[in-house]
Protein backbone atom coordinates (compact mmCIF):
# COMPACT_ATOMS: atom_id res chain seq x y z
CA UNK A 1 0.00 0.00 0.00
CA UNK A 2 2.80 2.37 0.96
CA UNK A 3 4.75 1.44 -2.17
CA UNK A 4 1.72 2.15 -4.36
CA UNK A 5 1.14 5.52 -2.67
CA UNK A 6 4.81 6.42 -3.00
CA UNK A 7 4.74 5.48 -6.68
CA UNK A 8 1.62 7.60 -7.21
CA UNK A 9 3.25 10.61 -5.53
CA UNK A 10 6.40 10.12 -7.61
CA UNK A 11 4.43 9.98 -10.86
CA UNK A 12 2.50 13.11 -9.88
CA UNK A 13 5.77 14.88 -9.11
CA UNK A 14 7.25 13.82 -12.46
CA UNK A 15 4.18 15.13 -14.28
CA UNK A 16 4.47 18.46 -12.47
CA UNK A 17 8.16 18.74 -13.34
CA UNK A 18 7.43 17.87 -16.97
CA UNK A 19 4.65 20.45 -17.13
CA UNK A 20 6.94 23.12 -15.65
CA UNK A 21 9.65 22.28 -18.19
CA UNK A 22 7.16 22.63 -21.05
CA UNK A 23 6.00 25.97 -19.65
CA UNK A 24 9.61 27.14 -19.30
CA UNK A 25 10.39 26.23 -22.91
CA UNK A 26 7.15 27.85 -24.03
CA UNK A 27 7.96 31.02 -22.06
CA UNK A 28 11.46 31.21 -23.54
CA UNK A 29 10.02 30.93 -27.03
CA UNK A 30 7.45 33.63 -26.31
CA UNK A 31 10.12 35.93 -24.86
CA UNK A 32 12.41 35.44 -27.85
CA UNK A 33 9.55 36.00 -30.26
CA UNK A 34 8.40 39.08 -28.34
CA UNK A 35 11.89 40.63 -28.47
CA UNK A 36 12.08 40.02 -32.22
CA UNK A 37 8.57 41.36 -32.77
CA UNK A 38 9.28 44.51 -30.76
CA UNK A 39 12.38 45.18 -32.86
CA UNK A 40 10.42 44.54 -36.04
CA UNK A 41 7.63 46.81 -34.82
CA UNK A 42 10.09 49.68 -34.34
CA UNK A 43 11.39 49.08 -37.85
CA UNK A 44 7.84 49.02 -39.20
CA UNK A 45 6.92 52.30 -37.48
CA UNK A 46 10.08 53.87 -38.88
CA UNK A 47 8.98 52.98 -42.41
CA UNK A 48 5.31 53.80 -41.88
CA UNK A 49 6.17 57.21 -40.43
CA UNK A 50 7.20 58.27 -43.95
CA UNK A 51 4.99 56.03 -46.10
CA UNK A 52 1.65 56.68 -44.39
CA UNK A 53 -0.20 59.89 -43.56
CA UNK A 54 -2.41 60.05 -40.48
CA UNK A 55 -5.27 62.54 -40.29
CA UNK A 56 -5.87 64.13 -36.91
CA UNK A 57 -8.72 66.40 -35.75
CA UNK A 58 -8.66 68.10 -32.35
CA UNK A 59 -12.02 69.18 -30.94
CA UNK A 60 -12.41 72.52 -29.18
CA UNK A 61 -13.37 70.77 -25.93
CA UNK A 62 -14.85 67.56 -24.55
CA UNK A 63 -18.40 68.90 -24.38
CA UNK A 64 -21.00 66.81 -26.18
CA UNK A 65 -21.65 69.59 -28.70
CA UNK A 66 -17.96 70.16 -29.47
CA UNK A 67 -17.35 66.45 -29.93
CA UNK A 68 -20.32 66.21 -32.28
CA UNK A 69 -19.02 69.23 -34.20
CA UNK A 70 -15.64 67.53 -34.58
CA UNK A 71 -17.32 64.63 -36.38
CA UNK A 72 -19.18 67.01 -38.70
CA UNK A 73 -15.90 68.66 -39.62
CA UNK A 74 -14.32 65.25 -40.17
CA UNK A 75 -17.07 64.20 -42.55
CA UNK A 76 -16.81 67.39 -44.61
CA UNK A 77 -13.02 67.35 -44.88
CA UNK A 78 -12.61 63.63 -45.61
CA UNK A 79 -15.43 63.70 -48.17
CA UNK A 80 -13.79 66.62 -49.96
CA UNK A 81 -10.36 64.98 -50.06
CA UNK A 82 -11.62 61.67 -51.45
CA UNK A 83 -14.07 63.28 -53.88
CA UNK A 84 -11.23 65.30 -55.39
CA UNK A 85 -8.58 62.62 -55.48
CA UNK A 86 -10.27 59.22 -55.42
CA UNK A 87 -7.57 56.91 -54.13
CA UNK A 88 -4.11 58.40 -53.88
CA UNK A 89 -1.61 56.38 -55.92
CA UNK A 90 1.44 57.28 -53.80
CA UNK A 91 2.17 58.88 -50.46
CA UNK A 92 3.83 61.82 -52.25
CA UNK A 93 0.65 62.41 -54.24
CA UNK A 94 -1.34 62.49 -51.01
CA UNK A 95 1.17 64.80 -49.34
CA UNK A 96 1.27 67.23 -52.28
CA UNK A 97 -2.51 67.40 -52.46
CA UNK A 98 -2.80 68.25 -48.77
CA UNK A 99 -0.08 70.90 -48.88
CA UNK A 100 -1.43 72.48 -52.07
CA UNK A 101 -5.01 72.49 -50.82
CA UNK A 102 -4.48 73.31 -47.15
CA UNK A 103 -6.31 76.65 -47.38
CA UNK A 104 -9.27 75.06 -49.14
CA UNK A 105 -9.44 72.26 -46.57
CA UNK A 106 -9.42 74.79 -43.73
CA UNK A 107 -12.16 76.81 -45.41
CA UNK A 108 -14.28 73.65 -45.70
CA UNK A 109 -13.73 72.96 -42.00
CA UNK A 110 -14.63 76.57 -41.16
CA UNK A 111 -17.82 76.33 -43.23
CA UNK A 112 -18.83 73.10 -41.49
CA UNK A 113 -18.33 74.84 -38.15
CA UNK A 114 -20.37 77.89 -39.22
CA UNK A 115 -23.14 75.71 -40.67
CA UNK A 116 -23.54 74.19 -37.23
CA UNK A 117 -23.80 77.56 -35.50
CA UNK A 118 -20.25 78.04 -34.19
CA UNK A 119 -17.49 80.52 -34.95
CA UNK A 120 -14.40 78.60 -33.81
CA UNK A 121 -11.14 79.30 -35.59
CA UNK A 122 -9.43 76.55 -37.58
CA UNK A 123 -5.70 75.94 -37.80
CA UNK A 124 -3.70 73.14 -39.39
CA UNK A 125 -0.23 71.63 -39.32
CA UNK A 126 1.56 69.06 -41.45
CA UNK A 127 4.43 67.28 -39.74
CA UNK A 128 4.98 64.48 -37.24
CA UNK A 129 2.72 63.49 -34.35
CA UNK A 130 2.66 60.72 -31.76
CA UNK A 131 -0.18 58.22 -32.06
CA UNK A 132 -1.29 55.32 -29.85
CA UNK A 133 -1.85 51.85 -31.26
CA UNK A 134 -4.86 51.88 -33.58
CA UNK A 135 -6.82 49.08 -35.25
CA UNK A 136 -8.27 49.36 -38.76
CA UNK A 137 -10.15 46.18 -39.57
CA UNK A 138 -7.61 43.36 -39.40
CA UNK A 139 -4.58 45.69 -39.48
CA UNK A 140 -2.98 47.39 -36.50
CA UNK A 141 -0.81 50.49 -36.72
CA UNK A 142 1.66 50.25 -33.81
CA UNK A 143 2.19 53.10 -31.37
CA UNK A 144 4.71 55.58 -32.73
CA UNK A 145 5.47 58.85 -34.48
CA UNK A 146 3.86 59.27 -37.89
CA UNK A 147 3.57 61.87 -40.64
CA UNK A 148 0.26 63.59 -39.95
CA UNK A 149 -2.09 66.31 -41.09
CA UNK A 150 -3.71 67.91 -38.07
CA UNK A 151 -6.71 70.21 -37.92
CA UNK A 152 -7.35 72.04 -34.66
CA UNK A 153 -10.82 73.40 -33.93
CA UNK A 154 -10.83 76.41 -31.60
CA UNK A 155 -8.73 75.68 -28.51
CA UNK A 156 -8.10 72.10 -29.57
CA UNK A 157 -8.45 70.89 -25.97
CA UNK A 158 -10.95 68.10 -26.58
CA UNK A 159 -10.54 64.43 -27.39
CA UNK A 160 -9.28 63.89 -30.90
CA UNK A 161 -10.30 61.77 -33.86
CA UNK A 162 -7.90 60.24 -36.34
CA UNK A 163 -7.73 58.01 -39.38
CA UNK A 164 -5.22 57.20 -42.11
CA UNK A 165 -5.43 59.29 -45.29
CA UNK A 166 -2.82 57.16 -47.02
CA UNK A 167 -3.24 54.26 -47.46
CA UNK A 168 -6.93 55.25 -47.57
CA UNK A 169 -8.43 53.93 -44.34
CA UNK A 170 -10.70 56.79 -43.27
CA UNK A 171 -13.79 55.01 -44.57
CA UNK A 172 -12.87 51.49 -43.49
CA UNK A 173 -15.78 49.63 -41.93
CA UNK A 174 -14.03 48.25 -38.84
CA UNK A 175 -17.13 46.21 -37.98
CA UNK A 176 -16.33 43.81 -40.83
CA UNK A 177 -12.91 43.08 -39.34
CA UNK A 178 -11.30 43.09 -42.79
CA UNK A 179 -9.40 45.79 -44.65
CA UNK A 180 -10.23 46.38 -48.35
CA UNK A 181 -7.78 44.69 -50.73
CA UNK A 182 -6.76 47.95 -52.43
CA UNK A 183 -5.78 49.48 -49.08
CA UNK A 184 -3.81 46.38 -48.14
CA UNK A 185 -1.99 46.45 -51.48
CA UNK A 186 -0.82 50.02 -50.87
CA UNK A 187 0.26 49.08 -47.37
CA UNK A 188 2.14 46.02 -48.62
CA UNK A 189 3.91 48.09 -51.28
CA UNK A 190 5.32 50.32 -48.54
CA UNK A 191 6.63 47.53 -46.30
CA UNK A 192 8.81 44.47 -46.42
CA UNK A 193 7.07 41.10 -46.09
CA UNK A 194 8.13 40.80 -42.45
CA UNK A 195 6.97 44.32 -41.62
CA UNK A 196 3.65 43.72 -43.37
CA UNK A 197 3.08 40.56 -41.36
CA UNK A 198 3.94 42.52 -38.21
CA UNK A 199 0.96 44.85 -38.65
CA UNK A 200 -1.43 42.19 -39.97
CA UNK A 201 -0.62 39.59 -37.31
CA UNK A 202 -0.36 41.93 -34.34
CA UNK A 203 -3.79 40.84 -33.07
CA UNK A 204 -2.57 37.25 -32.90
CA UNK A 205 0.39 38.32 -30.78
CA UNK A 206 -1.82 39.90 -28.13
CA UNK A 207 -4.25 36.97 -28.05
CA UNK A 208 -1.36 34.52 -27.78
CA UNK A 209 0.27 36.39 -24.90
CA UNK A 210 -3.07 36.76 -23.12
CA UNK A 211 -3.60 32.99 -23.35
CA UNK A 212 -0.13 32.36 -21.91
CA UNK A 213 -0.68 34.79 -19.04
CA UNK A 214 -3.97 33.11 -18.15
CA UNK A 215 -2.30 29.70 -18.27
CA UNK A 216 0.40 30.78 -15.84
CA UNK A 217 -2.16 32.20 -13.40
CA UNK A 218 -4.18 28.97 -13.24
Automatic annotation (TrEMBL):
Q: Which residues cross the membrane?
A: 16-36
InterPro entries according to UniProt: Spore_II_R
What UniProt keywords are attached to this protein's entry? Membrane, Transmembrane, Transmembrane helix
Q: Name one Pfam family in it.
A: Spore_II_R
Q: Which NCBIfam families match?
A: spore_II_R
Q: What is this protein called?
A: Stage II sporulation protein R
